């Protein structure tokens, strides 16, 4: 296969990945705003622990299902699960509008977008193998999750701040690694097929997860809380 043809296929694939990701982020933002402005529905999310934790479990189930079974499912099913996950995220993210000022949410989003763009470019163009960076970031992520669970019970402000700074560094590393991994994940020769579309959705999910996690850490660090 000619080099130009390979590059065209790679460009088409990357365009699909970022288009799916942009769609998911847009849906999440719109749903979060609509949920917050629907007072009765928002109060159910905030005041009903069963509803809130049910949403979290449903989000985890969507990611687990999509990650483990995407090769067996149709493009339509993969799309429904992916879009459904972004909707569920939007519902839970509505609590940020209650906790933080709109200005700080917007600022954190743009800082996240700028960081995401830079690290995606690094991951896409670098010739270095970022596998070791990805492995280190993944191990650090596991430690970060453990710290977060501990802090649920200890409510230690210093530990909370440390976790947020560590989270920013972890997901900056993961962004570069995951972008490179997604680029390599593309199977040349299947452009326009269902498999290619599902590859793009899976790549978009990976970057979407990196983006929203990085956004949350930036918001926790630099966002202005309404109660303050």
Describe the structure.
With about 230 residues, the protein is mainly α. The chain has one domain (about 5-220). The protein is built from nine helices and no strands. Helix 4 (about 75-95) runs parallel beside helix 9 (about 195-220). The mean pLDDT is about 90.
Primary descriptors:
228 residues; mainly alpha
> Please, what is the oligomeric state?
single chain
Distance between the termini: 60 Å
Number of helices: 9
Structural class: mainly alpha
Overall 3D shape? globular
N-to-C SSE string, H for helix and E for strand: HHHHHHHHH
Task: Indicate the low-confidence ranges by residue numbers.
Answer: none
The total of beta strands comes to 0
Rg, nearest Å: 18 Å
Q: Average pLDDT across residues? A: 89
The largest sheet, given as strand count, sense and whether it forms a barrel, is: none
Helix percentage range: over 70%
* Strand fraction: under 5%
The domain tally reads: 1
Question: In a nutshell, what does this entry contain?
Answer:
The chain has 228 residues and is mainly alpha-helical. The chain has 9 helices and no strands.
Topology:
Blueprint lengths: L2 H35 L1 H9 L1 H21 L5 H19 L1 H5 L2 H24 L5 H24 L2 H29 L8 H29 L6
Helix pairs in contact: 1-4, 1-9, 3-4, 4-9, 6-8, 6-9, 7-8, 8-9
């Amino acid at each position: 296969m000619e080099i130009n043809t390979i590059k065209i296929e790679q460009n088409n694939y990357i365009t699909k990945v970022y288009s799916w990701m942009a769609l998911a982020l847009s849906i999440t933002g719109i749903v979060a705003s609509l949920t917050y402005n629907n007072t009765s529905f928002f109060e159910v999310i905030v005041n009903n622990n069963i509803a809130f934790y049910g949403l979290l479990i449903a989000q985890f189930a969507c990611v687990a299902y999509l990650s483990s079974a995407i090769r067996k499912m149709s493009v339509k099913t993969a799309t429904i699960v992916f879009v459904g996950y972004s909707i569920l995220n939007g519902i839970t993210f509505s609590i940020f509008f209650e906790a933080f000022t709109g200005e700080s949410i917007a600022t954190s989003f743009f800082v996240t977008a700028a960081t995401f763009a830079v690290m995606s470019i690094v991951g896409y163009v670098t010739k270095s193998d970022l596998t070791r960076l990805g492995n280190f970031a993944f191990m650090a992520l596991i430690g970060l999750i453990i710290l977060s669970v501990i802090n649920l019970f200890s409510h230690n402000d210093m530990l909370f701040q440390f976790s947020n700074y560590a989270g920013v560094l972890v997901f900056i590393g993961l962004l570069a690694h995951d972008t490179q991994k997604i680029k390599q994940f593309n199977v040349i020769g299947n452009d326009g097929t269902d498999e290619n579309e599902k590859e793009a959705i899976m790549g978009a999910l990976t970057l979407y997860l990196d983006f929203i996690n990085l956004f949350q850490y930036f918001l926790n660090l630099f966002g202005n809380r309404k109660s303050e």
